[in-house]
Amino acid sequence: MLMSDTTTIELKNIDSEDIDDMLMKVEESFGFKFGKDELKNITTFGELCDIITNKVQGNNTNDCTTQQAFYKLRNAISTTLIIDKDSILLDTNMQELFPRRNRRQRFRKLQEELGFSLGLLDIKEWIGWTIFIGIILSIITFFFNWQIALIGLVFFIVVGWTTNKFFAKELYPITVGQLAEKLSRENYFKARRNSATVNRNEIAQKVKELFSKDLELEESALTRQATFV
Q1: What's the pLDDT score for residue 148?
Q2: Nearest alpha carbon to residue 26 among 15, 14, 34
Q3: Staple 3 to which of 60, 78, 161, 221, CB 3.0 to 4.6 Å?
Q4: Confidence of residue 4 (pLDDT cuts 50, 70, 90)
Q5: What whole-number distance in Å separates Cα of residue 50 and Cα of residue 204?
Q6: Are 13 and 215 a contacting pair, CB within 8 Å?
Q7: Is the pTM of this model over 0.85?
Q8: How far apart are CA 120 and CA 159, in angstroms?
Q9: How far apart are CA 53 and CA 139, in angstroms?
Q10: Are 167 and 123 in contact (CB under 8 A)?
Q11: Per residue in 64-79, pLDDT tens?
């Protein structure tokens, strides 16, 4: 749902399951859980951001998390690849740093150095589509022969899990700077130099970035007045 203008959007028009997924990502990134009825009376995006900002725990500082994520990422890449960290810039392409040969092994070492998964490597697009279509056809087959359908469904699920787990090595174009931004919004505390600190002035922006990237919305449309109900 890509917005074509900068008007305030109505989040109630977005699938509720997508909103729920976003709230789970917020919890994971900022390290807390929403109470059972805590969001019951929330009506606007601004109110949601206020609740999140108040719930995040940590000593407040004014440092930039994206900048810290870049330094952490740069140091980890330098250690993993044994290269000068000063040669790693914001616009350095990750594909150039990690060519396809030995990409999986080097990425594994990078993630071990960082202490968390980057979630960047994927399988070839045609393989992904083949598995997806196979699963859809298996579900349709349930209307005709549930045994064959079940075998097909299990087969394609296992193939999908195996290929993603052991053979994924495709890396979409992304710069080190863009990856630092991704880390700062999806792994907020892990991206920071000191996980006991937080910059409350930037939390609402990070939440906006999460919603914008995952729901394909323009940030300018995610105003405080954007409505859920």
Answers
A1: 93
A2: 34
A3: 221
A4: very low
A5: 8
A6: no
A7: no
A8: 19
A9: 42
A10: yes
A11: 999 999 999 999 999 9
